[in-house]
Amino acid sequence: MHTDLVAALDIGGTKIAGALVDGDGRILARAQRATPAQQDGETVMRAVAEVLGDLAGSPLWGHARSVGIGSAGPVDASAGTVSPVNVPGWRDFPLVDRVRTITGGLPVELIGDGVAITAAEHWQGAARGHDNALCMVVSTGVGGGLVLGGRLHPGPTGNAGHIGHISVDLDGDPCPCGSRGCVERIASGPNIARRALEQGWLPGPDGDTSAAAVAVAARAGDPVAVASFERAAQALAAGIAATATLVEIDIAVIGGGVANAGDVLFTPLRKTLTDYATLSFVQRLTVVPAQTGTDAGLVGAAAAALTRLPDVQAASH
Fold it and tell me: Gene3D superfamilies this protein is in (predicted)?
């Protein structure tokens, strides 16, 4: 039967999802709450506690050996705290301690959501079998994570690989992070849409001004929509090439809502990448869409907790 399971939490500005996951990445039980993102920190924590309470009601809960948490960031894994940009009530919130208390002292592993999706793609998805990979999420924001030497590389605080805030335009627009010309400021969904609207793109009769609507227009050949995706692709290409040049990755995996645009994004991205990834050791770099889908955050949080389990077992021998 199910021997060791892990409890996984995927915490974002919209929803808090939880699951019990087995050693093969299968989700055996689920729970979910809407994130009360504009409420105070204790109200948000209550939603997390309710998700854990639902999971604890499963007959499988007794098999859970640890908890993996992937959270919108920044996170600080070394301190066990989270400060998600889109959840203002949580600033340096001691999430790890609180979850440990609720679960009766289970070990808790915390990583950023970009690192969680990277863990999922390396374990179950497009980066499987690759020892050196960059995985990115391009949606409302742009996040990411790294696999180096066959292992997830979260860094000391759990934020390594955060490609969204590499600057690719020295004199570019100010980014809310405080820097200028960040990948996120050019390539995120809202920024793709903003740029298209500023350049004169007109939405259809439904008034939809999302990046998905811009993608539809780009597929239909609207030159402004095409140009907005080309600009996003160029920013992504520059960030990916910089990362590959620094740490020698051979694959970049892209997920998130904007990746659903398909060829409208990937064709100019692959073309532009050859302009930036020029040195011999980065020329074989491939760019592929993510495979793990909407459960990536949960599967990746579980992966992070599972990779810590052997240390625990080794210590007990």
Answer: 3.30.420.40
